[in-house]
Structure formats: C-alpha cells, structure tokens
C-alpha cells in the first residue's frame, strides 16, 4: 500500500486549515481599516443605516483634532444604536447646513474657522451626491460624511459652548467658578430635533445675553478696525472745559469722528460743551473719574488701540463660555448675585433682569479677591470680626508691641476661640516679640458695633477662601474710582437693601426688622429660605442695556494670563 510521505502531511494539513480560516481572516482585516463599511441592511425604507463602535474608534482616532471628543462621539452614537444622524434617506438634514455655516462664521464668535474646518464637509457631500446609487462605495461615503459632521460638531461646539481654553487646567488662569457642564451629546440631539430643550442649541446660539451683547460689540469694533482704527491723542497736560488747546482737535477726531475737523477753524481748539459731553461719556465707559478734565488717565485710555480693545472683547467672550448654562439651577426665579471684580460692582439678577446694582470694594492686588462661585446661605447681623492670624501678625502685632491697650481702643478682644464658647484672655499672656501667625494659640476679634470692620451685617457663603460680602464703616471709600482696598472680601455699598431683598421670602422679615438687627449689639444668624448662587467673576468689558460698551483695567493681570493661552 502506498503511503503519503510524512514530510508532506503537515504542509497539506496547514494549507487545508488556511483555506477554512480565510473568510474569518478577511473579516478581521476589514474591521481594522477606517474605510471599511460595516453597515447593517435597513429593515425598512426609512430606517437609517448603522455602523459599529470599532469604526467610530478608528475614524476619530485617525484625526488629531477629533481625538479629545472620542468619548462624546461614542456616547452619541451608542445612544442612537449607532444609526447615522445627519441623513434623511440619502439627503442631508437641514441642520447640516446650519453646522457648516456656523463653523464658517466662527470668527464672529472670536474663534478661528480653520480650527474647525478639519474636513471639507461640503466637498464630501458633493462627492457622495455625485455617486450613482449602484456604486459600491456610496454607502461608505455616506458613513464617512455622517461621522465627519458629528466629529466637526463636537470640535466646534466644545469651544463655542464650553470655551477654547479650560480654565481649570491652567494654573495661571485663576477661575474657580462652578464648571460649565453642558452635555454636548444631548445638545446635538436637540439640534437634530430628537430631543426638546429650553436652551437654543438648535440655532447654534450662545446661551448668555452678556455674551451675545459682546459679540455685537465685536462686530462694531472690527468695523472700526477695517476703517483704519482711531487717531492718536497727543497729551497736552491738564485741559479743563472752555480751555483752548491743540489737543482738543485730536480729542474731536477721536470721539466725534462725524465732525469735519480738517478745516482751519480756531473754534475747533476750544474745549466746548459738545466735546466735554463726549469726554464725560468716554470717562464713564472706561471707569475713569467723570470730571470732563483731560489728563493723563484719560489720554492713556484714549490711546488704547482698537486692536487691543478687540482682543479684550474676545477674552471676555471666552469667560462667558466658562459660566454654567444655568446660573441658578435650583430656583424657579433665576435669582443670583454676580460680583464683577474689575468693575467694583455687585448686581442682583432675577429672571434675566438686574434688580439691584451697587458699588463694591474688592481686594487689593496683594490680597486679590478670588474668582469663584458658591451658594449664599445665611446672613450674620451685628457680626464679630474674627481677625485672621495673618492679619494679627502683620497689622495688629506692631501696635500691641507698642501699646498693650490698643485692642481695647479698637473695641477688640483676645479670646480662647471663635464662637459662643469664647473666653476673654489678657494680651499679657502672649510674647508679642516672638508671636507669628503659626504659633499664636489665641484668637482676636472685634466686637459688634458701628466701628466693626465688617460693618453691621455680613453675607455668608462658607468657602475655602474665607471670603464673603459685608458692610463697612468706611463708606467714603465708595466715592473712589479704584476701589481695591480690602484683604479679599467684598464690601457692599447698600447692605440694608441687599439684606432686605434676600430676606423677602423669610416670614416676619421686612426692612424695619433688618435695620433693627443691623443696629443691635448682639450677633444674630438668619438663614435664607433658599440659598442664592453668588458668582465672583472677572469681566473687563461688557455691554450695558443701552448698548454702551464698557472697558476696565486688568486689575489683577488675569486678561494677560488668558491671552497667553487663547491667542
């Protein structure tokens, strides 16, 4: 009997095995190719085609700009059972055009369109539409275009709705405001009319009116830029109303460009009522002392270029994108307090309207007021001022080294601890020559009264910064232009009005009772019926209700830190 030689048996066996495995190997190779199509047949004429998660992973990972949004893309398609999103049969839905238009006009948002034109979406659609239905690659083109639209949306929407810079990941940007947690995958469902929302995502519109107003200001200032900007004002010392000076002509050109100031007319050198009004308005919009006097500060502000003002607008639009979409997520009346630090201003907002506005005093540069948000929970009437140990060492210790009665003269006392169990102890127990904030075993506080540094009421939102809003006995400081005098806390100009407003829902509390509590000698805590969000923010430009654009100095250098990341 003839036998097959043993030397040929194994190759023959392997060859047979490879033939059997060939279809499976081919399938495995196909799933590793980005262009491979894994489209399930539709069960009906209106059912959308599908693809699997492997394809999503491969497509997004192949494009660097899309990679940060892989999780969002996966979640979006998973929620829709991996059905294509942007097609109705073989036609793009109208929202695709809106997305492409929004990306092409990203410059109006202070963003760069080229950052989001990763794929030429219109060209991809033209290529898809040009293929006959019988072409075997048409379904693949459809799939690629759907994925490109989704990835492009998340790439653009992430910057537009949440910010091009993540303020929480850059140490130089001091922004501890509550994170903006927009779920962009749900926003896209809203855009595609698959989900209802109270927010205008479907229009690719911004969520905050303050942002929308700055966007219109950006158009205005870019128009000025296109027309060559504005002329320089060469300072000429102090010029008062009715004075005659050459610089008045420059000011006319700068603030009254509609006037014809090229004609030889000596009257143009007179600082008349029309120019005085224009200067006063300019001073008001730029946070200067409104005295209508031309001087160094006014000249300096006049000579900030239009390019710098445009950058300032763009920086502050970015900050608006960082804010939560809902500034009062718990309340039906959308009530919150916003402190704009560079503006030295406190505003009480309700249902989108400013119900109250007052001046504020904020931290000096060495003790800057932090940028953060919290919930205002209670008021403390006739408060003790519990002096931080750092202030005891830097400010109080030198006085006690010279005069052991200094605390008594300031209505202050040294105690064992803050709170109701505090016991007074004599200052003689401390060696003030060796005392530091770290070895000080006691506490110093100022008793309630008209001279208390916190005034007669403080507004509490306990936080890691030990910062809050409060009254002050130094009311005259509210008349200053630059009001950065505190150690970080925010002093408010109208504390009784603010307290009355916050307690309006508290049974038995009216303005009369608020004033009595403020004038008391006994500390009293009053909890709010419902906590109120408070935002301590940093906007160096904004637009008022009447359309006027305001600018302020970069008090703490936060604009400069953001510019290094954004531009």
What structural class do the secondary elements suggest?
alpha+beta
Biggest beta sheet summary = 8 strands, mixed, barrel
Judging from the principal axes of the Cα atoms, what is the shape?
globular
Percent helix range: 25-40%
Give start-end ranges of low-pLDDT stretches. 1-19, 22-47
Total E-strand runs: 16
What Rg is obtained from the alpha carbons, in whole angstroms? 33 Å
Strand content: 5-15%
Count helical runs.
17
Distance between the termini: 87 Å
**Overall mean pLDDT score?**
90
Strands across the major sheet, in which order?
3-4-5-13-11-10-6-14
Pathway: Cell wall biogenesis; peptidoglycan biosynthesis
InterPro entries: LD-transpeptidase_YkuD-like, LD_TPept_cat_dom, LD_TPept_scaffold_dom, Peptidoglycan-bd-like, PGBD-like_sf, PGBDSf, Transpep_catalytic_dom
Keywords: Cell shape, Cell wall biogenesis/degradation, Peptidoglycan synthesis, Signal, Transferase
Organism: Pontibacter toksunensis
